[in-house]
């Protein structure tokens, strides 16, 4: 449904993405991994139509994304930005989630019965029914992330872009978000592209993984294949050794800083790592 | 009590609109209007147009303040942020200094100069901001402050050049005042207000979206750049027309939206009518005070707005916090 063709993205004269090609099919769950500054968020912004392509392009069902009318685009693609730097003035939660319905509403965005139904459903899918009458600026980080997700769910798009949905959350609230995403996927078959630093969440929840290194595609394919080629491939992506660990009937990838005796930098540092730091 | 705040505001606005035209240097009773020609003239030619102008000007300024605070996502943004006040003041001062008198269709040359100055300053600010290919709030705000300073210095220069009489005229204009005679100034202001108000009314949901973040607004289907330009144009003509008629009256546009946001949750579709009513109510009260407190003299209304509004706002801000639920 969304195709990226030899995309180049430039910000302030600096090439952030180069020659990125990718096809996200209906219902696929992609995880985007890579170091800080590898271009993950920029890629998601390009997919949301927030950043014009310097070369190549993004196509929604064959049409250049920039040529798709805003409301039409919004009915296909929803976006949840990073937690850092978003403002939440005193909206009521119910009003805020209703704001996700903008693309489905007419003049003056008067809510109709269908809007109210999808808001109710979005609140249920994200465990936020009890928050409806709260003001946004009274919510905790975990509650806030669920409300942001609820607003995107209410948008009823076929593709959901999530930029680090788990950051700043404790393990319980990470689990709540991950479960909500599973429920949304089961219920609506929504395709998802999730930027994440949690390699194991990527490997266990995603159907596909895209790994970016310095703005270029390093790996793009089924999550199972990445798992088969790990931990070697992860070491390349993060310039950091990983260990494969068997736990609860799965293989998980553990970064080297959990190794015993890893208190000293020398125990985990690789040549690539020191090179990257200098 | 909380549920009836909106109704209370409506009642207060209606009462003030009904009573204010009778108040003045001398309180006119309805009975006197029936058989006293002079009283009737004062009521119809002076007080009624003045109260209506004050109400529309206050409401318009407050509404534009609400728009600007969402547009720039800045609590300190107000109708004069883009240098509109200093631009229009410069325009008015230039006309006064050039000695252009006369009027056309009830619009004085000074008013026309003020309107042109307002439009010029907005164009300048948007032009400057577009050099950086952004309409980000901070860039616009900074450009507005810079343009504001530019016009302020030009204004000072004009005052330095002008005679004592012209200089006094300019200073008096800068203090703001709703001195209208008959309905012509109101009718000249009305089309601009109606046009600007209509554009703003149609984009109230967009303001919610912009306030939540421009990236999010974009992803939800708001044409961000077009919306911002439309709203900038709408606020410029609205504020320009008001300032041309009443001079730069401060405080109403900055504080009224904040007062309303302390009383009601953030939702521009619901806030806008309340902000408009509250702004109109407030300015009519201030103007009534301005023309009665030291009658037969008049206090410039701009002095009163800050004098009355400042303490009230501080009280609202620092009273014991009540959770808004």
Number of helices of chain A: 11
Number of helices of chain B: 14
CATH topology of the domain at 2-88 and 156-238 in chain A, by name, is: Rossmann fold
Assign the CATH architecture of the domain at 2-88 and 156-238 in chain A.
3-Layer(aba) Sandwich
- Going by CATH, the homologous superfamily of the domain at 2-88 and 156-238 in chain A would be P-loop containing nucleotide triphosphate hydrolases
Helical coverage of chain B, percent range:
over 70%
Portion of residues in beta strands of chain A equals 25-35%
Order of helices and strands of chain A: EEEHEEHEHHHEHEHEEHHEEHH
Describe the main β-sheet of chain A briefly.
6 strands, mixed
Mean pLDDT of chain B equals 83
Structural class computed from helices and strand pairing of chain A: alpha/beta
Spatial strand sequence of the major β-sheet of chain B: 1-2
Rounded Rg of chain A: 20 Å
What separation lies between the terminal Cα atoms of chain B?
14 Å
Using the 3D structure, state the CATH architecture of chain B.
Orthogonal Bundle
Q: Element order, helices and strands of chain B?
A: HHHHEEHHHHHHHHHH
Oligomer: heterodimer
Q: What's the CATH C level of chain B? A: Mainly Alpha
């Amino acid at each position: 449904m969304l195709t990226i063709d030899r995309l180049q993205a430039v910000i302030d004269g600096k090439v952030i993405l180069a020659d990125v090609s990718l096809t996200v099919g209906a219902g696929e769950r992609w995880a985007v991994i890579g170091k800080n500054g590898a271009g993950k968020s920029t890629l998601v912004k390009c997919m949301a139509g927030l950043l014009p392509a310097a070369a190549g392009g993004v196509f929604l069902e064959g049409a250049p994304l920039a040529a798709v009318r805003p409301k039409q685009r919004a009915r296909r693609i929803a976006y949840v930005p990073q937690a850092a730097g978003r403002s939440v003035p005193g909206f009521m939660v119910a009003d805020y989630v209703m704001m996700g319905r903008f693309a489905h509403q007419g003049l003056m965005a008067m809510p109709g019965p269908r809007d109210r139904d999808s808001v109710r459903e979005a609140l249920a899918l994200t465990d936020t029914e009890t928050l409806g009458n709260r003001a946004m600026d009274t919510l905790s980080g975990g509650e806030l992330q669920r409300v942001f997700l609820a607003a995107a769910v209410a948008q009823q798009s076929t593709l959901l872009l999530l930029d680090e949905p788990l950051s700043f959350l404790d393990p319980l609230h990470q689990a709540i978000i991950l479960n909500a995403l599973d429920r949304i996927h089961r219920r609506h078959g929504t395709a998802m592209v999730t930027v994440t630093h949690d390699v194991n969440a990527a490997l266990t929840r995603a159907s596909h993984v895209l790994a970016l290194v310095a703005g270029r595609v390093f790996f793009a394919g089924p999550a199972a294949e990445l798992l088969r080629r790990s931990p070697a491939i992860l070491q390349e992506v993060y310039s950091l050794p990983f260990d494969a660990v068997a736990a609860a009937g799965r293989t998980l990838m553990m970064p080297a800083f959990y190794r015993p005796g890893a208190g000293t930098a020398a125990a985990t540092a690789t040549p690539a790592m020191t090179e990257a730091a200098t | 009590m909380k549920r009836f705040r909106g109704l209370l505001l409506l009642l207060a606005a209606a009462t003030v609109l009904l009573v204010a035209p009778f108040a003045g240097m001398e309180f006119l009773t309805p009975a006197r209007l029936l058989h006293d020609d002079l009283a009737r003239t004062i009521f119809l030619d002076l007080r009624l147009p003045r109260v209506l102008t004050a109400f529309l000007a206050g409401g318009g300024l407050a509404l534009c303040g609400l728009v600007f605070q969402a547009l720039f996502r800045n609590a300190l943004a107000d109708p004069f942020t883009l240098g509109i006040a200093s631009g229009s003041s410069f325009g008015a001062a230039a006309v006064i200094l050039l000695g252009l008198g006369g009027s056309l269709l009830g619009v004085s040359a000074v008013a026309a100069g003020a309107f042109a100055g307002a439009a010029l300053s907005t164009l300048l600010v948007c032009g400057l901001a577009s050099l950086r290919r952004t309409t980000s709030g901070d860039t616009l705000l900074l450009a507005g402050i810079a343009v504001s300073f530019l016009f302020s210095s030009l204004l000072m220069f004009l005052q330095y050049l002008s005679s004592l009489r012209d200089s006094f005229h300019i200073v008096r204009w800068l203090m703001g005042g709703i001195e209208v005679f008959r309905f012509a100034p109101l009718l000249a202001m009305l089309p601009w207000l109606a046009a600007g108000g209509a554009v703003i009314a149609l984009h109230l949901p967009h303001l919610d979206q912009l306030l939540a973040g421009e990236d999010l607004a974009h992803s939800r289907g708001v044409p961000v750049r077009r919306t911002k330009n439309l709203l900038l144009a709408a606020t410029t003509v609205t504020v320009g027309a008001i300032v041309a008629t009443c001079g730069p009256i401060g405080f109403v546009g900055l504080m009224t939206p904040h007062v309303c946001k302390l009383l009601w949750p953030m939702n521009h579709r619901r806030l806008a009518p309340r902000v408009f009513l509250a702004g109109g109510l407030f300015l009519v009260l201030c103007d009534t005070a301005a023309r009665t407190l030291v009658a037969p003299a008049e206090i410039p209304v701009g002095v009163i707005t800050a004098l009355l509004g400042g303490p009230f706002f501080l009280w609202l801000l620092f009273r014991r916090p009540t959770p808004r639920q």
